Structure formats: C-alpha cells, structure tokens
Amino acid sequence: MSREKDAANYAIVFFAVLSVLILLFPASKMAHTARVAVSYSFYPSMHYGAKYGHFVRNVPSNFIGILKTDQENRALKEKLRNLEVNLQNASALTAENDRLTRELKLSRSMPWSGSWARVVGKTPSDWYGSFYIDKGSDDGIAVNDTVLGMQDDRAGLAGRVFEVYPRFSKVLLLTNAAASAVCSIAPSGMEALVEGKGTWLLKVNYVPEESSLAAGAELTTAAGGLLFPSGVPVGKVTKVYPRESFMNFVTADVAPAVNVNTLKEVFVIRRGLQPEPAAAAVMAEKK
Amino acid sequence: MSLILEIILYIATGVFYWWWTQNLAFFGLAPDLIFSAALAVAILAGPVRAITWGFALGLYADMLGANMFGGYALTYSLMAYGVYVMKHHFDMDSPFSQVVAALALSWVCMLFYQGLSLVFSRINPLGLKIFLAGPFLNAIAVPVIFQVFYGLKRRTGIL
C-alpha cells in the first residue's frame, strides 16, 4: 500500500512538473515534441475519418443528396453559362484596368491564390476558438496563411492557420479571445483593432471618440495589418458602446462576416508569411 | 500486448470523441468524452496508470483547442490523483457515485482550467453554455464509459 502511494506521489509530481514546463515554455522543443507525438493519434480521426467517414455515414441522406445534387447541377450549369458571359466582360474590364494601372503607375495588390479545405474537427470546449481543416503541409499550407469562409456567396475573414501538420492544420478563429486583426472602418477608412471575445461576436477597440462610428459600419482588413491581405470583409458593427469617462476611445461589438458555426469549407490563402517564432528569431538576428 | 491495446483504446477514445462532436453535437454541446474517459480510467486503474492516462488524454484535449498547451494535461493528471485519494474514502464503483463525481469534478476541472488560462494566457476560454450544461452531459457519459472500460478490463486485462 505504501509502495503504491509512493509510486502515485512520484507519478503526479513527474507529470505535474512536465505539464507546467510545457505550459511555461510552449515554444520549446519539448512542447513541440509533445505536440508532434500527440498529433499522430489525430490521424485516424482528422485524416482517415474525414476522408472515408462519408462512405458509412448518413446513407439515406446521401441518397437524397444525390438527387439534390442533380438539381443543383442543372442550376449551376445555367449559372455557369451566365458567368461565361460575365467573364468575357470582366476580361475586357481587366485589360482596361491593367492599362489604366500602368498609365497611373498604381501598384496592384497581389491576387489571392490558395486552396479549399474542409473543416474536419471542432471541439465544443473551444467552439469559437479553433478548428481543424483537412489540408496540411503536404498541400502547401503554411503557418499564418489567411483562412476565409463563405457566407451568402461572399468571402469573409474566418481566421488564420495556427499549426500545420502534414495532412491537417489547426485554424485559429478570429473569434478566439487571443486573435485580433487590424481593420479599416468604412466609409472613413479609419483603422482600428478587431479582437475576438471567445463568443460569436467580435469587438472593435481603440476607435477615437471623435470618429463617427455607428451600427452597420462595415469592417475590412486594413493594409496596415501585415498578417492578413487588405480588403477582406471582417464584419459589421452591431452596437457602439458609449465612451467611458477614463478612456479617450470607444469600443463596439462586431458581428463577424462569416458565422463560424456554419462553416463546412474554407478557402486558405497562401501568403508565405513567416511563423512567429521564426520571425522573432530573424528580428533578433537583425538586432 | 497490454500496452498496444491501451494505445489502441486511447486512439479509439479520441476517434469516438471526434465522431461524436462532428455528428452528434447539439447546439455546440456534446459530452466531454475525453474527460469522461480520464475519470473512468482514474476509477478503474491503479494510480500511476491513471495519472499517465490523465496526462495523455489531457494532451489530446489540449491539441484540440488553441489556447494553452499543457493545461488539460495538468488538470486531468491532478484529477486522476484526486480520484485515487478519494477512492480510499468513497465507493466509486457505483453509478450514482460516478454521476456525483462527474458533476463535481467537471466543474472543478473547468474552474481550474479557467484559472490556469487566466494565469498563463490571460484569456477567458470558458463559455457559459458549456459551464452550465457540460457537467450534466459528462455525468451521463461517465457511467457508460466506465462500464465499457470495465468490460474491456475484464476481457483483455488492460488498465
């Protein structure tokens, strides 16, 4: 009995110290090794489960899905024909735009390129914090790539890639309390910081009190924030809070442009940004 | 052989939890099967094995979130030790005591994790919905998982 108690005491001390070390040094080699080791236990669910799960799941609804897909296919063919016409118009406009850009010597923003990924893992304990997608470094996904969601045929900022494994990646949602983005508020173009709250809403901070921020104002990512490409819709102001007596700026609630609860697929923009520790190392070297 | 079976059980627990959250989550709510498995193992197994399982399942739960790596590992390790101490004073084999333990320990673990999160990350990860409803879902899940693990223990000798 005493030996068992001793063993229990040694075990709890060992694992508690290990946990605290991982907590204190999240970017250390030990924490990284633990992450990689545990990531192997994710493969059956995140990769193979997401890949083959649909074969055995929801067979009746899949049958109905085939019928619906047929109808949708017909509608999409119609839409495609219309888009072909629009594309021809657009190519003429693009050529004109190129010509004017050259003439006005304006620099064009980089076009977005990336790939679609499916949301394959979401945990209730971190519902508004993060989720997993089924694309990883094998598909060219890198840390800090921008993740867009689609809502009502419109793209909106969902978050950024936070951790990358060979066949899946973790996305840090903008609604996570640790996430933020520099945004531009329409129509004035004033820049402000949008932060996650850990709920379905975002908050916008550090807006000067003299600004005419009002409910309904649209927010897009600003060129000043280097993490995200500029011009991506972030959300809409829903409520502006009155200025506190001890502060010289106002805050507001923002409804995200995409509802993270309904996201099934996301578009990952490949930006090739450096991950934070590496970026920090580069900065340190420069100093 | 026993170790291989335990690794398979660990992965199967994770896969089952993933499947449940992907297909059966209701209003963003699902029983925390990782917590339930950690508690069931803590009741069934010896202290060293229970703490090791708590740590491993905690790391799995940490991987699922993006806030703090190591928080759940510490929480579930300490929970396993706490259950080992409690087992000397209470009968943890009956479903009723498991329900009570699941309810109480769910809240204790949530508050402990919340405290860790505020200290290490300065963020508030605990949603009100999960805080109010999660423990009751866990209380339903723990006796079921306990029976499954108990059956596996009897048949294969693991845990």
The major pleated sheet of chain B works out as: none
Please identify the oligomeric state: heterodimer
N- to C-terminal distance of chain A: 58 Å
Q: What does the main sheet of chain A amount to?
A: 6 strands, antiparallel, barrel
Description:
The complex is a heterodimer of chains A (287) and B (159). Chain A has 287 residues and is α+β, with helices and mostly antiparallel strands. Chain A folds into 3 domains: 2-41; 56-104, no CATH class; 110-273, Thrombin, subunit H (Beta Barrel), CATH 2.40.10. Chain A contains 5 helices and 12 strands. Chain A has helices spanning 2-24, 29-40, 43-56, 59-104, 276-286; strands at residues 114-121, 130-133, 146-151, 154-164, 169-173, 180-185, 190-196, 202-208, 218-221, 233-240, 249-256, 265-269. A 6-stranded antiparallel barrel of chain A has the order 1-2-5-4-3-12. Residues 106-110 and 278-287 of chain A have low confidence and may be disordered. Chain B is built from 6 helices and no strands. With 159 residues, chain B is an all-alpha fold. Chain B has one domain (2-23, 30-156): Arp2/3 complex 21 kDa subunit ARPC3. Chain B is globular, with a radius of gyration of 15 Å. Classes of the chains: A alpha+beta (287), B mainly alpha (159). At the A-B interface, helix 1, helix 2 and helix 3 of A face helix 1, helix 3 and helix 4 of B.
List keywords for this structure.
heterodimer; A: 287 residues; alpha+beta; Thrombin, subunit H; 3 domains; six-stranded antiparallel beta barrel; six-stranded antiparallel barrel; 5 helices; 12 strands; globular; disordered C terminus; B: 159 residues; mainly alpha; Arp2/3 complex 21 kDa subunit ARPC3; 6 helices; 78% helix
